[in-house]
Every structure is written in C-alpha cells, then in structure tokens.
Amino acid sequence: SLDHPLLQPLPPPPSVPPDRYFVSRRV
Q1: Cα separation, 24 vs 27, whole angstroms
Q2: Where residue 12 falls among pLDDT bands split at 50, 70, 90?
C-alpha cells in the first residue's frame, strides 16, 4: 500500500485535542 501510516500520520481525531494527540504519540 502506498499509504503508509509511518510516512503519512493521520490527523488527530475531532474528539481529541491536537495537543493531547501529539503528546500521546510522542510518549
């Protein structure tokens, strides 16, 4: 599949704030 999650991370879900989303992924 050309769409690779590691190369193209999906945007944060509307129910979760971007800040929380990025922090969760970084940890």
Answers
A1: 5
A2: low
